[in-house]
Amino acid sequence: MRRNxxxxxxxxxxxxxxxxxVGLVAETAAGAYWMARKRRMAAIEQSLQTAIETYNLxxxxxxxxxxxxxxxxxxxPYYVLSDDQADSIFGQLLRESCRKGANPYLDPQSMFVxxxxxxxDSWKRKGGMDFNVAMRQKIPVSQLTVGYPTxxxxxxxxxxxxxxxxxDMVQVTHCCQKCCVTSDTExxxxxxxxxxxxxxxxxxxxxxx
Length: 209
Hints:
Layout: H1 8-59, H2 66-71, E1 79-80, H3 83-98, E2 112-115, E3 129-130, H4 131-136, E4 144-150, E5 155-158, E6 160-164, E7 169-173
Antiparallel strand pairs: 1-6, 2-3, 2-4, 4-5, 6-7
């Protein structure tokens, strides 16, 4: 005799299979999402470093406080700039690149920005946006600084600038100040990249990258 419908066992098996498939799709989508964020972070990081180096080549000096460090004789292997110092330099490069008829140091359209007035003492910092969005909101370029997105779409994270006086070189890194190691040859490397379990040490969550 022909049976109508499914048994409860068959329905439970079907639901379990669907759940597994949904989980696999979600995991794949999440992985693609984070990879896209990593690629953008790396692209902005490289753009900022190139912009600082280009400024030095064109003007014969480093932008902002970097030039002060370059002129100061020191045995220190490197200096890690404060957030405010880095903001000032990134803001300067952004402003000069936006001037009409300027030979830009970076492409403003590719930048992720936030107002300098945002409070950064909490990892729950929101207010980041694409440069084009900031322009549509008519936020003055002078009020913006550059970073990269973390977590949600609007979460903003700063880059760190490291100056190495022995080689007169600059490094832009996504690692926060508290995660930069103290070795001359490894300045800028995140603690997690050295296998030191950064999750309990980094208040800025840069280990997600």
